[in-house]
Design goal:
The protein is of the alpha/beta class. The protein has four helices and eight strands. It has one domain: Dihydrofolate Reductase, subunit A, CATH 3.40.430.10. Helix content is about 25%, strand content about 25%. The radius of gyration is 14 Å and the shape is globular.
């Protein structure tokens, strides 16, 4: 399970979502997301899936509470041994897959406005922004 990564864009106070969408529009980050995830498999929660635009070049796999995260990952790795798998949100999905995530790509967005969905803590560290296994990308 060494290829499981997480990718998220997080506001200054941990914001990740608002009304089912991203709270901001950041074209640089969207370009970054495209570049990093191209050719990979994305695990996305069923709520996020409702508003996700088409993502050419990536296989998007929906997750809901009926699906056991570990079994899902084992099956995806088994069928796609050479692909990187990204857990791509939202909050419930990050939370459910956190035990299997080895690496996090976090874009820190300069946004301090409202949100209704927030990033869960990574690996139990008090502040994910300082987590040792955390890889800041912007
Ligand atoms: N900033 C970012 O990088 C980023 C990335 C992705 C998403 N987002 C944002 O995150 C928000 C969505 O996050 P989210 O956490 O609400 O949803 P989500 O992770 O996209 O999907 C959540 C799904 O989990 C299932 N679930 C599991 N336990 C549940 C429970 N106790 N109650 C209800 N549902 C449960 C439900 O699916 P079933 O009903 O099918 O079981 C639900 O649809 C959106 O605003 C989206 O734009 C942000």
């Amino acid at each position: 399970m060494s290829k499981i990564s997480l990718i998220a864009a997080v506001g200054r106070s941990g914001q990740i979502g608002m009304n089912g969408e991203l709270p901001w529009y950041d074209s640089d980050d969207l370009r970054w997301f495209k570049m990093v995830t191209m050719g990979s498999i994305l695990i996305v929660g069923s709520k996020t899936l409702e508003t996700l635009p088409p993502l050419p070049g990536r296989a998007v796999v929906g997750w809901g509470r009926e699906i056991d995260p570990e079994q899902m990952i084992v099956s995806l790795v088994d069928k796609n041994p050479d692909k990187i798998i990204y857990v791509a949100g939202g909050a419930r999905t990050y939370q459910a897959f956190m035990p299997f995530v080895k690496r996090a790509h976090i874009s820190r967005i300069d946004y301090d406005g409202p949100a209704d969905t927030f990033m869960p803590q990574l690996w139990g560290e008090p502040d994910y922004a300082d987590a040792v296994r955390f890889q800041a990308v912007s």
